[in-house]
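Cast an eye over my tokenised protein here and flag anything odd:

===
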Amino acid sequence: VGCGDGLSALQFAQRVKMALGIDYIPDFVSRARQNAAKRHISNAVFEQGDVMDLGAIRTTHGTFDIVSVIRCLINLGNWENQAKAIAQIALCVQAGGVCIAAEGWQDGFDGLNLRRQRVGLEPIAVAEFNTPIRRSNFEAEVSKYFDVIDYYNLGFYIFMSRVVQPLLVAPDQPRHDHPLNVIAGDLQMKGLIGDEFLDCDYAGIYVLRRKA
């Protein structure tokens, strides 16, 4: 849901029988189809769809084993719309199925910017078209439809890339491909870091199980 250029969906397609990517913007759907063709991935299809009303998707495709939503809800302008979209997504997940949600969490932005402020760095501004979500609000809403199975905290990676790297390379600008980011990501993925930097985590991943 909210597939954008389709690159995440194409990664998923290599591990499943069929992947469907939907996006509200026709140009993104076109780009996603082009990316699938370039990579010769035939089991990923892309269609236009509106996360605020997924009825047409359900009519055509039924419900799904797994639904992923990555930085889609934050583009809906306000919490009321976000809650409506969560309900629509839940209707697309079959009982016992899984929803993977990686949005933008307000708690993490607040904590990260507090740490940046303490070391003299400017706060990171949220894009004007994004509306980050408080995790407590999200968990309360999704609990109507899902059980929370797990949460993958990315706070260490974010702290290293958004606090330590800027201090390390100043006055140069930080880079996404800096070796420090690679090391931080590897340590995070190997589970060597606990919840010490949970307060910085604005991009963590929820794994949700659809209730019967």
Summary: Strands lie at 19-23, 44-48, 64-70, 93-102, 146-152, 205-210. The CA atoms of residues 83 and 152 lie 22 Å apart. The radius of gyration is 18 Å.
